[in-house]
Amino acid sequence: MSNEPHSTDEPTVVELPEPTIAPMVLALGITLMAAGVATSLTFLFVGLSLFAIGLGMWISQLLPGRGHYHEPLIEAALRSQAVNVAVGGVDQMRQGKPGYRLRLPEKMHPISAGIKGGMVGGLVMPLPAMAYGLLSGRGIWLPLNLLSGMVLPSVGDMSDAELEQFQPTLFALGIFIHITVSLVLGLIYGVLMPMLPSIPRPFAWGALLMPLLWTAVSFAAMGFMNPAVRDQVEWPWFVVSQFVFGMAAAAVFMRMRKKNLLAAGLLGGIAGGLLMPIPALLWGVFTKHGIWYPVNLLSAMALPHANKLTVAELEQFHAQWLLAAIVLHLSLSINFGLAFSLILPRLPAIPGPLAWGGLVLPLLWTAASYGLMGVVNPVLQERVDWPWFVASQFVFGVVAAIVVVRSEQVAIPPAGRGPEQPAEYL
């Protein structure tokens, strides 16, 4: 008889479907596309982008070797033991007893957490807007008066001097709108936070936070070098361009980072730089400015006489300006890609709820506000300083997400009623 140990073919892992948010992204894209048909091209473009991203994510899950992952089994000693069979009856499940019709998720944040998050976020959200009013010399009442213009078309006809003054009616309406929106968004945060998956670190930093930082740096640099050019930039489309760059760069980086970090950053910057101009060129076509307008605006960042250029000159083709824009664009794209590859390994992971609540939802709320204002009050849409608007939404999202995540979760009682329901579920 052989003394060799007996080998078993018992599996050590189990194959499970890989979780994906592709259906949610696809559904959101279709919804925004439908809203864009009736409201604004911005909604239509954002919805089309989300539709393409969601569809691509879903198709990628269906490719051979994708869509599943292997979950390791626990040690045999820690698994449940065989049940000793005993003759007799079993207790019947009764209505109201724990375990009867289990509800998922088992725990969630209470409604009060969303209300608190909305209230705290609403309190700190006006700080960037007030800072903008003070730094620009236009006063603290301007942002609040502009907010009331989302429902009052007559605000668009007011002069700058009137908007910079205290208006009791606009003040009361602006406060009402701000409180209502803050509470509604806070409730949405409280419901969505437990159900959203985590975001990979390259996407959280590269596709979400880096575009915001790049926009802030560009806005400040343009204001220092050439304020006249900064006023002609359509900043919501600028943010969309940075978002496209970040998504492309992060996707390339995630696929190549195991081979060479610098090569991954370099190729990611090049890929992002190639796709980044698409939103800007689409904006030029939709606004009838032409495809050369955004190109000339980019080159104008380095032109000392750009503040004297007319709109007609910016809409024309200039070979030297095109060359300057290409060199400037490639330099920035490659440098940002390399910096991303060097800095990312040293950055901590952003928690999923904070990435969603502090980065994704503020961008969606900004896009919704931009489209709504374009329908209700297109004149007022041009008077809002959108980078500061994005900063306000960012502050709200981060603070509200922190408040919701730090709140204690409560257990969801099982379905059904009955006298035997435990006291902790009442």
Which regions have little confidence, pLDDT < 50, spanning 5+ residues?
1-7
Largest sheet data: 2 strands, antiparallel
Summed up, the helix count is 18
Q: Note the overall shape.
A: globular
Q: How large a portion of the residues is in β-strands, by DSSP E?
A: under 5%
Mean residue pLDDT: 77
Number of strands: 4
Q: List the domain count as a whole number.
A: 3
- Rounded to the nearest angstrom, the radius of gyration is 27 Å
Class from secondary-structure proportions = mainly alpha
Give the % helix: 55-70%
Element order, helices and strands?
Answer: EHHEEHHHHHHHHHHHHHHHHE
Q: Within the largest sheet, what's the order of strands?
A: 1-2
Core attributes:
4 strands; 3 domains; two-stranded antiparallel sheet; disordered N terminus; mainly alpha; 426 residues; globular; 18 helices; two-stranded antiparallel ribbon
Describe the structure.
62% of the residues lie in helices and 3% in strands. It contains 18 helices and 4 strands. α3 packs across α7 (168-192), α8 (201-225) runs antiparallel to α10 and α10 (235-256) runs antiparallel to α12. The radius of gyration is 27 Å and the shape is globular. It starts with 12 loop residues before the first strand and ends in a 15-residue tail after the last strand. Residues 1-7 have low confidence and may be disordered.
